[in-house]
Specification:
Layout lengths: L12 E9 L7 H17 L10 E10 L2 E9 L1
Antiparallel strand pairs: 1-3, 2-3
């Protein structure tokens, strides 16, 4: 995330991103479920689901190339 786009007036703010590398995700219900499962697992590893410090989030998913998906998160109070 570009630092210039972060609304610092929100108070406590944290930014992070994850990138999933896998050219095997396709547009099927099963593949979408696998993608959500993988993203959730990484989110848990990165403590993105811990709401004790940050209570709100803005998330953006982009596909920089055919073999990866990038998920940016802005967590804030």
């Amino acid at each position: 995330m570009a630092k210039g786009n972060i609304p610092w007036s929100l108070g406590r703010v944290d930014t992070a991103y994850m990138q999933l590398y896998n050219g095997n995700y396709v547009n099927t219900p099963q593949s979408k479920a696998e993608f959500i499962q993988d993203a959730t697992k990484l989110g848990n590893e990165y403590s993105w689901n811990d709401t004790s410090e940050y209570h709100k989030a803005s998330i953006r998913a982009t596909q920089p190339d055919n073999n990866s998906v990038r998920i940016d998160v802005l967590r804030y109070n």
